Amino acid sequence: MEEQVKVALARQAIGEAVSTRVQELFEAEAEHQRARSRRHRELHASAGLPKPAQTRLHPAYVPEQAPEVPTAVVETRPAATEPGTIFTWKVERDEPPYFIMLVASTWTRQVAHQGYALIDGHPVVQVREWDEQGRPLEIRTVDLCGLFDPTIHGWRAWAHNADRRVDWSQPDTPRLVDR
After folding, report:
1. C-alpha distances in angstroms, 51 versus 34, 54, 132, 147?
2. Distance (Å, whole) CA 90 – CA 168
3. CB of 167 within 8 A of CB of 176?
């Protein structure tokens, strides 16, 4: 039972970390969109053009306002081949993000149970190499992306698998570095 609790806590922590990062990406993009809108309003005003009409849009389609990102639902599934993730989320769906991790059969024992589900705020999909002290030295994680897509989907996020080295020079705060 304790093992199931550790896995549930690992998934919850991963879900919170994914959502926090997506929210940060959305906030940065919204700031960019607000600056862009200010420039357009100033150009319209200087040209003597009327203000555009205000419309009420679904939050997914308001570029200047980052929508709230609920905690991601995390599911782990056995990897048929290479461990990785499946993640793409569109705010327009009105559902929480769904983050699928395709993991090796050792993930529960080596990652979740050992407390390595997150390193430096990044989900650990797989430990690819261990150091002599039994700590992850190289991991498979994800690079999260999030932006406003003005063409069709509005606010959306996705992930790419990424392999990173773990720097343990500060043992209490390991950092991820590029390989």
Report:
1. 16, 9, 65, 26
2. 36
3. yes
Q: What is the pLDDT of residues 123-132, one digit of tens each?
A: 999 999 999 9
**Of residues 99, 131, 100, 86, the one with CA closest to residue 21:** 99
Token pair recorded at residue 34 = 């607000």
Q: How many CB atoms lie within 10 A of CB 2?
A: 7
Only one residue has tokens 């999260």, namely 144
Burial class (CB in 10 A: 0-12, 13-18, 19+), 168: middle
Specify the number of domains making up the chain.
Answer: 1
**Which pair of tokens denotes residue 158?**
């996705």
Q: Which stretches of 14-153 are assigned E, i.e. beta strand?
A: 73-78, 84-86, 88-90, 98-103, 118-119, 122-123, 126-130, 136-149
pLDDT digits (tens, 9 = 90+) for 40-57: 667 766 777 676 666 666
Query: What range does the domain containing 17 cover?
Result: 2-178
